[in-house]
Predict the structure.
Amino acid sequence: MWIQILVLGSTLLCALMAIRASRLLVAALWLAGCSAFLALSIALLGAPEVGVVELSVGAGLVTVIFVFAISVAGEETVGVQSVVPRPLAWTLMALFAVLLVWLCVPGLAAPALPRDALPFLRALWVERSLDTVLQVAMIFSGVLGSLGLLAERRTPHARQAGEGAAP
Amino acid sequence: MSVSIWTIVMVAVFGLVAIGLYGLLIIRNLIKIVVALQIFAKGTILVMVAAGAMSGKPAVGQSLAITVIVADTVVTVMALALAIQVRRWSGTLDTRVISRLRR
Protein backbone atom coordinates (compact mmCIF):
# COMPACT_ATOMS: atom_id res chain seq x y z
CA MET A 1 0.00 0.00 0.00
CA TRP A 2 2.67 2.53 1.05
CA ILE A 3 4.99 1.63 -1.80
CA GLN A 4 2.07 2.11 -4.21
CA ILE A 5 1.37 5.56 -2.72
CA LEU A 6 5.07 6.44 -3.00
CA VAL A 7 5.32 5.29 -6.62
CA LEU A 8 2.10 7.03 -7.70
CA GLY A 9 3.17 10.20 -5.89
CA SER A 10 6.50 10.13 -7.74
CA THR A 11 4.59 9.68 -11.01
CA LEU A 12 2.52 12.78 -10.29
CA LEU A 13 5.60 14.78 -9.24
CA CYS A 14 7.42 13.86 -12.47
CA ALA A 15 4.35 14.80 -14.53
CA LEU A 16 4.07 18.17 -12.79
CA MET A 17 7.77 18.89 -13.27
CA ALA A 18 7.51 17.91 -16.97
CA ILE A 19 4.80 20.56 -17.43
CA ARG A 20 6.65 23.18 -15.36
CA ALA A 21 10.11 22.67 -16.90
CA SER A 22 11.09 25.57 -19.14
CA ARG A 23 13.66 23.64 -21.19
CA LEU A 24 12.28 21.08 -23.62
CA LEU A 25 14.98 18.49 -22.97
CA VAL A 26 14.39 18.64 -19.22
CA ALA A 27 10.65 18.23 -19.81
CA ALA A 28 11.33 15.13 -21.95
CA LEU A 29 13.51 13.63 -19.20
CA TRP A 30 10.87 14.28 -16.51
CA LEU A 31 8.33 12.62 -18.82
CA ALA A 32 10.59 9.57 -19.06
CA GLY A 33 10.73 9.42 -15.26
CA CYS A 34 6.95 9.71 -15.06
CA SER A 35 6.64 6.84 -17.53
CA ALA A 36 9.08 4.64 -15.60
CA PHE A 37 7.24 5.21 -12.30
CA LEU A 38 3.91 4.54 -14.02
CA ALA A 39 5.29 1.26 -15.39
CA LEU A 40 6.36 0.26 -11.88
CA SER A 41 2.95 1.17 -10.52
CA ILE A 42 1.15 -0.86 -13.20
CA ALA A 43 3.41 -3.83 -12.42
CA LEU A 44 2.58 -3.49 -8.72
CA LEU A 45 -1.13 -3.47 -9.62
CA GLY A 46 -0.72 -6.97 -11.05
CA ALA A 47 -0.20 -6.30 -14.75
CA PRO A 48 3.55 -6.82 -15.34
CA GLU A 49 3.12 -7.34 -19.10
CA VAL A 50 1.57 -3.90 -19.54
CA GLY A 51 4.25 -2.47 -17.25
CA VAL A 52 7.03 -3.89 -19.42
CA VAL A 53 5.44 -2.51 -22.59
CA GLU A 54 4.97 0.90 -20.94
CA LEU A 55 8.57 0.89 -19.73
CA SER A 56 10.09 -0.08 -23.08
CA VAL A 57 7.82 2.04 -25.27
CA GLY A 58 6.86 4.93 -22.99
CA ALA A 59 10.14 5.45 -21.17
CA GLY A 60 12.48 4.15 -23.88
CA LEU A 61 11.26 4.69 -27.42
CA VAL A 62 9.24 7.87 -26.83
CA THR A 63 12.12 9.52 -24.95
CA VAL A 64 14.53 8.73 -27.76
CA ILE A 65 12.09 10.18 -30.28
CA PHE A 66 11.61 13.29 -28.11
CA VAL A 67 15.34 13.88 -27.79
CA PHE A 68 15.75 13.39 -31.54
CA ALA A 69 12.92 15.81 -32.30
CA ILE A 70 14.27 18.43 -29.89
CA SER A 71 17.76 18.13 -31.36
CA VAL A 72 16.35 18.59 -34.87
CA ALA A 73 13.87 21.36 -34.05
CA GLY A 74 16.15 23.09 -31.54
CA GLU A 75 15.46 24.40 -28.06
CA GLU A 76 12.97 27.22 -28.13
CA THR A 77 11.62 28.67 -24.94
CA VAL A 78 8.18 30.09 -25.68
CA GLY A 79 6.95 32.83 -23.35
CA VAL A 80 4.91 31.97 -20.30
CA GLN A 81 1.78 33.71 -21.56
CA SER A 82 -0.78 30.92 -21.84
CA VAL A 83 -3.20 30.04 -24.64
CA VAL A 84 -6.35 30.58 -22.58
CA PRO A 85 -6.53 32.93 -19.58
CA ARG A 86 -5.30 31.14 -16.46
CA PRO A 87 -8.56 31.70 -14.49
CA LEU A 88 -10.46 30.01 -17.33
CA ALA A 89 -7.99 27.11 -17.26
CA TRP A 90 -8.47 26.70 -13.49
CA THR A 91 -12.28 26.90 -13.85
CA LEU A 92 -12.23 24.19 -16.51
CA MET A 93 -10.00 22.09 -14.25
CA ALA A 94 -12.43 22.48 -11.33
CA LEU A 95 -15.34 21.53 -13.60
CA PHE A 96 -13.40 18.49 -14.73
CA ALA A 97 -12.64 17.52 -11.13
CA VAL A 98 -16.33 17.67 -10.18
CA LEU A 99 -17.23 15.57 -13.23
CA LEU A 100 -14.57 12.97 -12.50
CA VAL A 101 -15.48 12.64 -8.82
CA TRP A 102 -19.13 12.26 -9.81
CA LEU A 103 -18.15 9.50 -12.25
CA CYS A 104 -15.82 7.73 -9.83
CA VAL A 105 -17.61 7.76 -6.49
CA PRO A 106 -19.64 4.58 -7.08
CA GLY A 107 -16.45 2.88 -8.28
CA LEU A 108 -14.54 3.76 -5.13
CA ALA A 109 -16.17 0.96 -3.17
CA ALA A 110 -15.13 -1.65 -5.73
CA PRO A 111 -14.62 -5.24 -4.57
CA ALA A 112 -11.17 -6.79 -4.38
CA LEU A 113 -9.52 -7.98 -7.56
CA PRO A 114 -10.92 -11.38 -8.57
CA ARG A 115 -8.81 -13.89 -10.41
CA ASP A 116 -9.27 -13.71 -14.13
CA ALA A 117 -11.03 -16.43 -16.09
CA LEU A 118 -9.53 -15.21 -19.37
CA PRO A 119 -5.72 -15.15 -19.39
CA PHE A 120 -4.12 -11.98 -20.68
CA LEU A 121 -2.29 -13.58 -23.61
CA ARG A 122 -5.46 -15.33 -24.77
CA ALA A 123 -7.40 -12.06 -24.58
CA LEU A 124 -4.72 -10.22 -26.55
CA TRP A 125 -3.84 -12.77 -29.25
CA VAL A 126 -7.05 -14.80 -29.65
CA GLU A 127 -10.00 -12.66 -28.60
CA ARG A 128 -8.55 -9.47 -30.00
CA SER A 129 -6.30 -10.83 -32.76
CA LEU A 130 -7.79 -8.50 -35.39
CA ASP A 131 -7.03 -5.45 -33.22
CA THR A 132 -3.49 -6.67 -32.67
CA VAL A 133 -2.87 -7.07 -36.40
CA LEU A 134 -4.37 -3.61 -36.96
CA GLN A 135 -2.02 -2.21 -34.32
CA VAL A 136 0.99 -3.66 -36.11
CA ALA A 137 -0.25 -2.10 -39.36
CA MET A 138 -0.77 1.21 -37.55
CA ILE A 139 2.76 1.23 -36.16
CA PHE A 140 4.21 0.70 -39.61
CA SER A 141 1.99 3.37 -41.16
CA GLY A 142 3.08 5.76 -38.40
CA VAL A 143 6.76 5.04 -39.01
CA LEU A 144 6.35 5.41 -42.78
CA GLY A 145 4.32 8.60 -42.33
CA SER A 146 6.96 10.18 -40.08
CA LEU A 147 9.70 9.18 -42.51
CA GLY A 148 7.70 10.81 -45.30
CA LEU A 149 7.24 13.96 -43.25
CA LEU A 150 10.90 14.17 -42.30
CA ALA A 151 12.17 13.47 -45.82
CA GLU A 152 13.99 16.29 -47.59
CA ARG A 153 12.87 17.21 -51.06
CA ARG A 154 15.62 16.33 -53.52
CA THR A 155 17.23 19.47 -54.80
CA PRO A 156 18.47 19.59 -58.44
CA HIS A 157 22.03 19.72 -57.12
CA ALA A 158 21.57 16.54 -55.07
CA ARG A 159 19.85 14.86 -58.01
CA GLN A 160 22.76 15.69 -60.29
CA ALA A 161 25.22 14.41 -57.71
CA GLY A 162 23.15 11.21 -57.39
CA GLU A 163 23.09 10.70 -61.14
CA GLY A 164 26.80 11.41 -61.36
CA ALA A 165 27.50 8.75 -58.77
CA ALA A 166 25.32 6.16 -60.50
CA PRO A 167 27.13 3.97 -63.03
CA MET B 1 -12.04 4.60 7.29
CA SER B 2 -9.61 2.41 5.42
CA VAL B 3 -8.66 3.65 1.98
CA SER B 4 -8.79 1.06 -0.80
CA ILE B 5 -5.88 0.76 -3.24
CA TRP B 6 -8.24 1.66 -6.08
CA THR B 7 -9.10 4.95 -4.40
CA ILE B 8 -5.41 5.86 -4.43
CA VAL B 9 -5.12 4.77 -8.08
CA MET B 10 -8.16 6.88 -8.99
CA VAL B 11 -6.65 9.92 -7.23
CA ALA B 12 -3.43 9.38 -9.22
CA VAL B 13 -5.43 9.03 -12.45
CA PHE B 14 -7.21 12.28 -11.67
CA GLY B 15 -3.87 13.95 -10.98
CA LEU B 16 -2.29 12.74 -14.24
CA VAL B 17 -5.30 13.68 -16.38
CA ALA B 18 -5.62 17.05 -14.62
CA ILE B 19 -1.93 17.88 -15.11
CA GLY B 20 -2.19 16.87 -18.79
CA LEU B 21 -5.35 18.90 -19.31
CA TYR B 22 -3.83 21.94 -17.59
CA GLY B 23 -0.77 21.63 -19.80
CA LEU B 24 -2.88 21.35 -22.94
CA LEU B 25 -4.79 24.48 -21.90
CA ILE B 26 -1.87 26.76 -21.11
CA ILE B 27 1.17 25.56 -23.11
CA ARG B 28 2.04 27.22 -26.41
CA ASN B 29 5.15 25.28 -27.41
CA LEU B 30 4.26 22.54 -29.92
CA ILE B 31 6.68 19.96 -28.49
CA LYS B 32 5.56 20.60 -24.91
CA ILE B 33 1.95 20.16 -26.04
CA VAL B 34 2.96 16.63 -27.05
CA VAL B 35 4.47 16.15 -23.56
CA ALA B 36 1.14 17.22 -22.01
CA LEU B 37 -0.72 14.84 -24.33
CA GLN B 38 1.58 12.01 -23.20
CA ILE B 39 0.80 12.72 -19.54
CA PHE B 40 -2.92 12.73 -20.36
CA ALA B 41 -2.53 9.36 -22.09
CA LYS B 42 -0.60 7.93 -19.11
CA GLY B 43 -3.62 8.66 -16.92
CA THR B 44 -5.76 6.82 -19.46
CA ILE B 45 -3.46 3.78 -19.41
CA LEU B 46 -3.58 3.63 -15.61
CA VAL B 47 -7.38 3.92 -15.55
CA MET B 48 -7.71 1.15 -18.17
CA VAL B 49 -5.71 -1.27 -16.00
CA ALA B 50 -7.55 -0.21 -12.82
CA ALA B 51 -11.01 -0.33 -14.42
CA GLY B 52 -10.37 -3.78 -15.85
CA ALA B 53 -9.33 -5.05 -12.43
CA MET B 54 -12.24 -3.35 -10.66
CA SER B 55 -14.85 -4.73 -13.06
CA GLY B 56 -13.47 -8.26 -12.81
CA LYS B 57 -12.05 -8.42 -16.36
CA PRO B 58 -8.38 -7.55 -15.94
CA ALA B 59 -7.29 -9.20 -19.22
CA VAL B 60 -9.58 -7.00 -21.30
CA GLY B 61 -8.46 -3.89 -19.46
CA GLN B 62 -4.78 -4.78 -19.87
CA SER B 63 -5.07 -5.53 -23.58
CA LEU B 64 -6.92 -2.23 -24.09
CA ALA B 65 -4.15 -0.49 -22.13
CA ILE B 66 -1.60 -1.93 -24.58
CA THR B 67 -3.74 -0.65 -27.46
CA VAL B 68 -3.69 2.81 -25.86
CA ILE B 69 0.11 2.68 -25.44
CA VAL B 70 0.60 1.74 -29.10
CA ALA B 71 -1.85 4.33 -30.45
CA ASP B 72 -0.40 7.01 -28.19
CA THR B 73 3.14 6.27 -29.38
CA VAL B 74 2.11 6.52 -33.04
CA VAL B 75 0.30 9.80 -32.32
CA THR B 76 3.41 11.13 -30.55
CA VAL B 77 5.72 10.19 -33.42
CA MET B 78 3.43 11.81 -35.97
CA ALA B 79 2.94 14.94 -33.84
CA LEU B 80 6.70 15.37 -33.33
CA ALA B 81 7.34 14.92 -37.05
CA LEU B 82 4.69 17.58 -37.74
CA ALA B 83 6.26 19.89 -35.13
CA ILE B 84 9.66 19.52 -36.83
CA GLN B 85 8.13 20.38 -40.19
CA VAL B 86 6.29 23.38 -38.69
CA ARG B 87 9.54 24.58 -37.17
CA ARG B 88 11.32 24.10 -40.49
CA TRP B 89 8.77 26.06 -42.49
CA SER B 90 7.72 28.77 -40.05
CA GLY B 91 10.83 29.07 -37.90
CA THR B 92 8.98 28.84 -34.61
CA LEU B 93 7.19 26.38 -32.35
CA ASP B 94 4.89 29.00 -30.80
CA THR B 95 1.25 28.15 -31.58
CA ARG B 96 0.16 31.80 -31.49
CA VAL B 97 2.71 32.84 -34.10
CA ILE B 98 1.75 29.87 -36.27
CA SER B 99 -1.95 30.72 -36.07
CA ARG B 100 -1.10 34.32 -37.00
CA LEU B 101 0.70 33.10 -40.14
CA ARG B 102 -2.60 31.88 -41.57
CA ARG B 103 -4.18 35.33 -41.81
Summary: The helical segments of chain A are 2-20, 24-44, 48-73, 86-108, 120-127, 129-150, 156-165.
